[in-house]
Amino acid sequence: MIRIYSDSAGLVLEQSGEARRPGTALTFDLLFAAEDPGAVVRAAWSSGQPAALPVKPGAPIGSQEVWAAGVTYLRSRTARMEESKDAGGGTFYDKVYHAERPELFFKGTPHRVAAPGTPVRIRGDSKWNVPEPELTLAINAHGRIFGYTVGNDMSSRDIEGENPLYLPQAKVYDKSTALGPCLLVTDQALPITTTIAIEIRRGGTSVFSGSTKIDQIKRSFTELAGFLFRDNSFPNGTYLLTGTGIVPPDAFTLKSGDEIRITIEPIGTLVNAVA
Fold first, then answer.
1. How far apart are CA 125 and CA 264, in angstroms?
2. Which residues lie below 8 Å from residue 260, measured CB to CB, with a gap of 6+?
3. DSSP run (H or E) holding 148
4. Phi/psi at 21 (nearest 5 deg)?
5. Is 179 helix (H, G, I), strand (E, B) or coil?
6. Is 129 helix (H, G, I), strand (E, B) or coil?
7. How far are the Cα atoms of 129, 131, 260 from residue 176, in angstroms, in the given order?
């Protein structure tokens, strides 16, 4: 497995603690468009020159769209049902959890994505906001999953809970997504014991933490990618957030200045403050 970081000079590859800058031109767009991204990365590694890892890496994205899957964990289904029960939308989430077709929605374009160490945002017209830590699939233009990154699907729970039709407003706005700290390219599926962990710190004190394992997800990653590519094309590939199994208690909401730390090994830790 090879990790790809970005900086102002381009891309940096890291494997087993050694970092190299590709000897040939390599961009995320070229990688996502390739039929075999793993082979492209291995060739770039072989021809690369020693380099230092970026101190402040950028988001691992070129012109890829970002999509997301919802209600893929039982905990997420329960939370969505609770937040929308007064609007009569609770049964929608139970039905989609058990349905053949998953919930998939557009999450953002590259300019809406926050890089590691840069702020994510909460909506000014929302009073109940949470991060959603999610394993994120890198899918090439041919629909093949070739890598993973850490994703934060920022969500306004009160807006979505008021009416499920408000989902785009609850999910899609400037800096409503964070990706990083790198893109892990591997030909092997991640172990089902892979842990997703989150900690939220406020004024230097931990105010929420939680974890789950990817074996708790109801749907397979190939299933989610397959539905996303039905009657849809992605010339430069796409990212797909796979849903969250960690939901803070209903009394919790993010505040400006909070620090969100999401860790998925072997990818790394994505850190963002709330603007």
1. 31
2. 120, 131, 152, 178, 198, 199, 200, 254, 270, 271, 272, 273, 274
3. strand 145-153
4. -95, 130
5. strand
6. strand
7. 11, 9, 13
Sign of CA dihedral 263, 252, 73, 141: negative
Q: Look at the pTM and tell me if it is higher than 0.90.
A: yes
Q: Tell me, what amino acid is at 43?
A: A
Cβ neighbors of 49 (< 8 A, separation 6 or more) are 20, 21, 23
Distance of CA 8 to the CA centre of its chain: 22
Q: Which helix (H) or strand (E) holds 180?
A: strand 177-185
Beta carbons within 10 angstroms of residue 195's beta carbon: 12
Q: Is the dihedral angle over the CA atoms 10, 173, 161, 271 positive or is it negative?
A: positive
* pLDDT tens, residue by residue, 169-222: 999 999 999 999 999 999 999 999 999 999 999 999 999 999 999 999 999 999
Domain coordinates in residue numbering, the chain: 2-50, 65-273
Tell me how crowded residue 137 is: count the other CB atoms within 10 A of its CB. 23
Q: Where are the alpha helices (DSSP H) in 110-260?
A: 157-162, 167-171, 221-228
DSSP state of 27: -
Q: 16-75: per-residue pLDDT in tens?
A: 999 999 988 899 999 999 999 999 999 999 999 999 999 999 999 999 999 999 989 875
Run of H or E residues at 114: strand 113-114
Class of domain 65-273: alpha beta
